[in-house]
Amino acid sequence: MTVEQNVLQQHSQKHQQTLLNQLREVTGTTDVQLLQQALQVSNGDLAEAVAFLTEKNAKVPQQDETTYYQTSQVASDRYISVGSQADTNVIDLTGDDKDDLQRAIALSLEESSRAFRETGITDEEQAISRVLEASIAENKASLKRTHTEVWSDSPNPYDRKRVDTCSVGLKNVGNTCWFSAVIQSLFNLLEFQRLVLNYSPPAQVHDLPRTQKEHRNLPFMQELRNLFSLMVGSKRKYVDPSRAVEILKDAFKSSEAQQQDVSEFTHKLLDWLEDAFQMKAEEDREGEKPKNPMVELFYGRFLAVGVLEGKKFENTEMFGQYPLQVNGFKDLHECLEAAMIEGEIESLHSAENSARSGQEHWFTELPPVLTFELSRFEFNQALGRPEKIHNKLEFPSMLYMDRYMDRNRETTRIKREEIRRLKEHLTLLQQRLERYLSYGSGPKRFPLADVLQYAMEFASSKPVCTSPVEDIDTSAPPGGTTGQQLPSQSTTEQDSLPAAESSGPASAPTTAPTAAQQHRIPIHKPFTQSRLPPDLPMHPAPRHISDEELRVLEGCLHRWRSEVENDTRDLQGSINRIHRTVELMYSDKSMMQVPYRLHAVLVHEGQANAGHYWAYIYDPHQRCWMKYNDISVTKSSWEELVRDSFGGYRNASAYCLMYINDKKPFLIEEEFDKETGQILSGMDKLPPDLKQYVKGDNEMFEKEILEWDTLQARKAQQEKQALAAALAAAAAASSTSSPQPMSIESSPPDNSAPQQDPEYMEQPSPTNDSKQLQEDTERAISRAASEQEARSPEALLNAAIKLEYARLLRFAQEDTPLENDYRIQHIIVYFIQNQAPKKILERTLLTQFADRNLAFDERCKSIMNVARAKLDLIKPEEVNMDEYEMWHQAYRNFRETTISMMTGLELFQKTNYIDALMYLIYAYQYNKELLSKGLYRGHDEELLGHYRRQCLLKLNEQAAAMFESGEEAEVNTGLGIMNELVVPCIPLLLIHDTERDLLAVEDMRNRWCSYLGQEMESNLQERLTDFLPKLLDCSTEIKSFHDPPKLPTFSILELSERFSLVMAAMGRVPTEGR
Questions:
Q1: Is the entire prediction scored with pTM above 0.70?
Q2: PROSITE patterns, from UniProt (predicted)?
């Protein structure tokens, strides 16, 4: 907006005062003469004036501009994006913080001065806004990373293979979640996707020398086309955007365009795309003004209607992303209403020549894609840094923009005036209602209807006794001799009786107490004694009230209470009707002609200077919301979006809303083949050059899969050969040690056991697990033999097996506490509970009875030989050995999980959280895999999850305490714990999205984010700002992790005993709170 030069000249004095006020506020200088001198020396230049006042500050050391990100404000000679900067000055915020902040503020004030000359708007909020932007830039510059953190890919390509036509994710190549969120939002605008994929560079650029913009924008466009083509047709689950990101980062480091903050990326991205399409449009034009598709898609216009002290003006401006303040508003419409009106606007549509100033914005043309920037940062003057606003802000899935359109200006003004009048009336009604609901003149107030009810209840209460004074026995002796005169009274009764002073003259000389007696014996006085008299009424009641008085009083109180309740009900009804009227003010059809549907929500979690970004994008074909979080693309819901985006819940909230015109379906419609009429999908969408590019990448990925398959087949073959060699060696050793024929698997040599024989089933020495099994087996044989001595060995074997199976079946069916887990004691219990096939159970029991350690008497030896013979007679087709081995491997996994869990819990019990963590982490992961195959395959998931979570919280507290100490060694140890143990484990808590795990992660993050507002040494501040992005990264991709801890070995008896002890102490999950 511009105003006539003479208007500014008339108010130059006011301008001078405004500059003085701004200098005073920013520099803290109160000396008016010094401020005037600074302005005089600088000839009114605010930047020089601030420099003059802060010239004693240290000089800014020069930095290598290729080392760090810097901050700049980029000029645009074509369009003014609302809220964007338009200066070419560069602030290097990588040097001394205080001096740089002053320079940032100086530039901010210079911008404010320019804005005043152009707009006449000089209110305090404009200056604070500029300071805020500069400070945000400073904090962003302080987050420079010397080592970018790159998530590693899984070596198994099948883990990275795309499933059917699922959306493709974007790899985080080092704190680039902001890139992923924006690009995914734009990619899912199918019209934008088509424009990018079908873009071809101007032919003339091949012949002419490239300008700096062409040198930057055209390669970026090609990389963006390549990236989009991979997102369309790749066979990968996610793709790498490194090339496009590197071009962006290089540009942000240059002197021409440097990143101000994450939201600025979208501005710059659209600027680049606009430049690229502008070159193409100018080449393709035929005498007409070239049309830029980026401008047509993302830019709109509004009319600024203003009055500057009686002088009216109108000016049309173009906007891209429209900024909205969040603080102080409850929903998006309130933000928009506030953004459309600035200052006092009564004079805008009045005939009076008012001295008030203000302006209104009216949209004349809305873009098909309407983007709102939500300003969730404010400058904390006390701390000198920005803070994030976590307030809740609601926004609708369907937004009607009619009330903000210029063509509805008069209608909207009438409705706004009506709403203003209604809200004034509403305020009066609410004040009246408050008097009814909070009645009284003291600090405690109550609803008037309740007060009247209480009075009615008091009046109708029947008195239990008369005044306490009248109940006192006046014949009792004075207080000084009470205890002596009533020796038969109990001490309690004596203490409870109030003593009355005697009024008889004869008693005075004999009962006058001494000073010592007065000191020793308390004097009971009516109404002042703290002890309650025994006959005090149980509840308050009137002492004297006649029936007539009660009847009149009850009638009045009842009538008054009814009147109050009616008045309260009428007021609440009127308030509700006004609320409803305001809500429906714009619901008529004439004000619902410009519908915009929510397309994408970009979410930020964290604080002002660190955090993580992801996007929720609506899929119109599946009719559901999708969550795009780097490589992870999952189905979501409106409820989850609300939880993460409205704010007020955690540290997560929306910072950008993207709406699309609901009357322009081409924005999200798929393209149709002109010849066949079929929807184009996948590779059919791509032009020939990109088809070839994607085909080449897919071939590389298929080659990677083929190499992986070959490698795995080679490993399997080697393992098979090694197993065959081991079996052959075992067979040879067995044949030389015993002439009796027996199967290889059931007769291990003395010093080694074949791999398919579980070590918990048979050991060469009866000192460990096999000793327990041997005792169980011998007991079963003895019981079978005692029933019938004349049985043959085969009959005894069958009877013993039946008895042993019956015993183990009873254990499997018992409902036992956690500390008495029979699965640990015997594999058959595990098999029964998990419904293993009968053939597997039979062979496992035979193997138990075929143990050579049974051969200590002839009866056991004969049974062992029969069992071995039966094993030899089992044909391969009768028992699937692969299935047999699979079940035994499952039990081995169960035992390893049990050992890992038990060891972790024992270490946790000893407060050795560092060593406990890895055992608990791996136990939880192993256990989850087991439970995925059956309910009884593993242990209590909730229990393991609780102690895994508690272990991380304990380590977080320890690390935070070390950081707070400030000692370098302690700080290094604390941050080492976080970087090496806690941070790598956070994705494990986020990946399943359980509420308690999410709350634990939030608590850990909040603990460290709380340091942002505290004073600390510069080296600690630097360490903190380097660490926070790692902690706040919400990616669920697992980094390279610690190797599993080495598991100790236990016999069955030892494992059962230790497991029982630790589960008895820790087997109950306590109630968790925040």
A1: no
A2: UIM, USP_1, USP_2, USP_3
